[in-house]
Amino acid sequence: MKKLISLFALLTLCAGCNRFPRPALAPEKITGEARTALITELGKSDAAVSTFKGLARGVLQDGKERAIIRYVILFKKPGKLRIEALPATGAYTLSVLAANELGVTLIDPVGERAYRTSDPAHAIKTALKIPVAPDELTSYLLGTIPAKLLDSSIDIRKSDAGLQVVQGEFSAYWLVDPKSRRLKAVELRRSPRGAPALTITYGEYSGAGDQSYPKELTIDVPGESVHGTISFRTTEFNPELRDSNFSIVIPAGYSVYEGLDRPDL
Predict the structure, then answer these.
(1) Is 55 helix (H, G, I), strand (E, B) or coil?
(2) Is pLDDT above 60 for 231?
(3) Whose CA is closest to 196, among 152, 147, 130, 120?
(4) Per-residue pLDDT, 122
(5) 10 with 230: CB under 8 angstroms?
(6) Higher pLDDT, 168 or 240
């Protein structure tokens, strides 16, 4: 596979998934002290997990070809993330993404190439085709709203489907289970009337309380015509993780490129 997206993505290619209507908002608003308390509670749910380690299974499909990739996912808030892609069987590494306060390094052992950038959000979008920053990605993987996005523009409504949480002019829409406070769906948009830049839907959750996580989630990136699923096989919440887990020593002999605007990516 020529592109790192083929190794990294928690996605499967699809066609015809670039039209999503905006969700209809329920008329009943949650305001005042109830709104403030709910925003605080949602923020605490996200902040409860500061470090994480898990093994996930991704299903990849390109035309008639279908592949299963395993992912070792580690994060340490704020800003530290490591995703290592492994084959369905075997112990060798296909690719690694590591982000910390100094930037992001992508390693492609197959092509013996390394890429470095100081823009984490751009690296996530380039490697995974997911238009979010590292801390936002880790929140969404575990089914919580990123706490830093819960600002004064938040509008909360009570619907039959759940709590509708909207940021600004529909730049972000989150559907939240009213009991567990976990996400049921996510839509992120670049413009109020545009198509979503990212949608995520969640299946059932496993675990309880702050250690609850989705058994499976489905990701769509309409602008990239990509779609896929990821499911966790093992999870460890708030383990002790060294900062060195999020740094990579580039092997000798690798070609090293500064920046990500290259055709081989």
Answers:
(1) strand
(2) yes
(3) 130
(4) 86
(5) yes
(6) 240
Rounded Cα gap, residues 26 and 65, in angstroms: 42
What domains does the chain contain, in order, with CATH numbers? 4-258 (2.50.20.10)
- Encoded tokens for 78: 């704020």
* Weakest-pLDDT range from 37-46, 103-112, 255-264: 255-264
Identify whether the C-beta of residue 176 lies closer than 8 Å to the C-beta of residue 183: yes
SS3 136: helix
pLDDT exceeds 70 at position 63: no
Chain position carrying tokens 């709590």: 163
Closest CA to 85 of 109, 114, 51: 109
pTM greater than 0.90: no
Q: How many residues does the chain have?
A: 265
